[in-house]
């Protein structure tokens, strides 16, 4: 519960510096004769987006204007610029209120003359008679003028409210209370855990933290369970260091002096109060269990091991001629081999993409994260009800600077992010990276009798990493040359473990594995929700389930030998009303969004298929049915994908403040997915056919001893892909890929029949010039550019210079302050 400004990044950094030092001696440029050419060309011709980025986050100037306007207009609220306590009123957050799609559409798609009005969204912390509230307003139009107004922001919240009561009436008081509690039982903690809390230095590595979890959050107040933790010494591993003492606090009263410490829990036994606990500890039959001590086992680096091979740096990817995408940094617009889209950020949700087109045709209006949830289970009072919704802490706010050459290839382009909280603009430099990458496998190949052809799979990635307390989520939006899009999330960082009572009769083995002396791995579900507002070749779309079904048929040509034949066929089931759908058994159905009007050259509806992508198996939904902790705050987690009507009044599936009022959330997803008809073919319906999908990625995470110290990203990955389904007339990647066709020696080319080979065919041909002894030359015909000569690259192409890494210390979220008045991600 103690605010810990982590200094851990410097530990990470020093490890990088050491690797850089080693690599500097080991990397040799490819060729010394060639003069160095511009590495990762930063001098490409300026590129202009076709339109304004109407979703862009407020600039620093806009945010200041909005703040000043609110201060002036809401003078009666006595808003404090530097709030001293939760009893002060203050402007918590200002950010862009995304324009209604209806208003943006005419500008984007019908050559409308002007962009939609720009508005801001403000969250104001306001004290009312019954305590603190967080209240949303809309402020605009921008720029602030005499026409600008402040209105309650209600239309985006289906609760009909624009406010949420803050159950944490006074966070500082909770911190003080927890410290006092810890001090009052310091004799017991010393005896059983070998440590005590340190008021003078709360993050004393040898001390204890008391971390609260709201076991029942209601507008009226809270019941808290506190658990003791060790802070973690060198790697910030506190979530691997839970201790076996828990205390219950009745925090219902708004006056912290009236809070009551009641039960204690240790080694499977519940004690009425501290006195009973103390008496038991002193008694003869007391059952102890070993404490969970920090040590080298939580270290995230091993600087000492030298297995053969570690003395050499690994292969890395280089990009000697610069990127092939075009980037308008101002409008945050990218164009790459037919794909075009805008990027924006928000402190709660991080990166979103808008107006995604492929070869000039509309594919999606919006693609972006909505919420990242982790829901735990366990038989102890902490893990038993633990749940995090990470937009509350801020997936954007916690998207820190990326490590060049490690998070992203050395040649990546970086974008910064900004967010505005409590009258301040925060800059996060280099928090988004964009890069092309060539996979280690081909996009296509074929060997025929006289030739072989191979096309490289080069894709474009937009990446950010959100470190929310213990966990790091790497979020990728990936574009492939055939028009496929992928959303992929990988997790790393520390698991949130449970205390393992070694001498117990408890049921904890039902909830995870023992992974250290006194640590259980604590099973949990990660369910991470995204919105995909598909507009496949326009907004009018239909969703179908195309089933692949076994059946028995009779064919005339089969008679009389085979009266009946067991086979399979396609059966289409239109999705006619809003619904939550799970991935089918045996992958037996394709979920396809078709254009209602547009067809390809073959008369087939243009479509995109949504499917589980690459990673560990299908994407999961929440295992727990009707979660006691979640209430109605995250019902989107209960199915894999959802098909909904697009509505300006339903821009998001969740709101960060759902965390404060799970049983009466400000956005209740069940009211969005409420079974409305998706029919739009008959003339008597007013629905225009614009539908929106929500989908989940994540994992049923049952960590093992190998999640210590950190969860590994290659297996903690899951993705959803959007794959063109008859969208084009043939594979469009043919016009974009780089590859080679090799001609076998002999006169013919192609397949078995072959044609007489024409050396001056219409493919770009180049002689490899390598004579096979006394025989024909082998012909290589390249499509797309090739490397033509040796290149000398600077060291930074292999190992970016980290000496210039000058980030300030990271304000990493401390999950123990999850109820801090300032919800990070409003
Ligand atoms: C968006 O549309 C809603 C519903 O029609 C409307 O109430 C709201 O004012 C619009 N928002 C903006 C910023 O124009
Ligand atoms: C700590 O002990 C003092 C003295 O007995 C008592 O007044 C106070 O309420 C206790 N505080 C907590 C949080 O247990
Ligand atoms: C508790 O278990 C540990 C080993 O897990 C053992 O060394 C210790 O003696 C046990 N203590 C009691 C009181 O049973
Ligand atoms: C979910 O749980 C709540 C509270 O226990 C109950 O009122 C409700 O009927 C349950 N709903 C379903 C669908 O099980
Ligand atoms: Cu996990």
UniProtKB/TrEMBL annotation:
- The source's superkingdom equals Eukaryota
EC number(s) on file: 1.4.3.-
Query: Single GO cellular component annotation?
Result: plasma membrane
Give UniProt keywords alphabetically. Answer: Copper, Metal-binding, Oxidoreductase, Signal, TPQ
Q: Which residues form the DUF1965 domain?
A: 238-301
Extract the ranges annotated as region (Disordered): 282-317, 745-777
| Any one GO biological process | amine metabolic process
Name the residues annotated as catalytic in the UniProt entry. 390 (proton acceptor), 471 (schiff-base intermediate with substrate)
Q: Per its Swiss-Prot or TrEMBL entry, what cofactor is needed?
A: Cu cation
Q: Which residues form the Copper amine oxidase catalytic domain?
A: 317-733
- From start to end residue, where is composition biased (Basic and acidic residues)? 754-777
Q: How is the cofactor bound?
A: Contains 1 topaquinone per subunit.
SUPFAM superfamilies annotated for this entry?
Amine oxidase catalytic domain (SSF49998), Amine oxidase N-terminal region (SSF54416)
Q: Which residues form the signal peptide?
A: 1-24
Q: Which residues does the record list as 2',4',5'-topaquinone (modified residue)?
A: 471
Question: Could you cite one Gene Ontology molecular function of this protein?
Answer: quinone binding
Kindly provide the PTM information from the record. Answer: Topaquinone (TPQ) is generated by copper-dependent autoxidation of a specific tyrosyl residue.
UniProt lists the family membership as follows:
Belongs to the copper/topaquinone oxidase family.
Protein name in the entry: Amine oxidase
| Organism annotation | Oleoguttula mirabilis
